[in-house]
Amino acid sequence: MYYAQKVLNRLMGLVDDRAAAIADELNIEHIDLRPVLAPTLDNYYDFAHYTPAGAAIIARTIADVVLRGPGVRRRSPSPLAAVSD
């Protein structure tokens, strides 16, 4: 079964929102990665799979959060900070 892009995007947004709410309830740090990548073919092969360039942006974003250390929570990293080379 396949869903239209708009339907799939909405469903994934609901899953992301629920996962973030659970993480907040459990006081677990989480990163909203969706705003970090523009939805282009430069970053995605399809709706869900990253290209090497997209994966590199995600890796830098996660590394930034991990290296920042505990105690500073930020749900949505700055897209500009994640893209700097």
In short:
The protein has helices at 5-25, 52-68, 79-83. The chain is mainly alpha-helical.
Q: Helix count? A: 3
Give the beta-strand count.
Answer: 0
Quickly give the structural class.
mainly alpha
Alpha carbon gyration radius: 14 Å
Overall body shape: flat
Q: Could you spell the SSE succession in H and E letters? A: HHH
Largest sheet at a glance? none
What are the segments in which pLDDT stays under 50 over at least 5 consecutive residues?
76-85
Mean pLDDT: 82
Our measurement of the CA-to-CA distance between the termini, rounded to an integer number of angstroms, reads: 39 Å
What's the number of structural domains?
A: 1
- Percent range of helical residues: 40-55%
Estimate what percentage of residues fall within beta strands. under 5%
Please describe what this structure looks like.
This protein has one domain. It is built from three helices and no strands. It has helices at 5-25, 52-68, 79-83. 7% of the residues are buried.
Key terms for this structure?
85 residues; mainly alpha; single chain; 3 helices; flat; disordered C terminus
Q: What's the topology here?
A:
Blueprint: H1 5-25, H2 52-68, H3 79-83
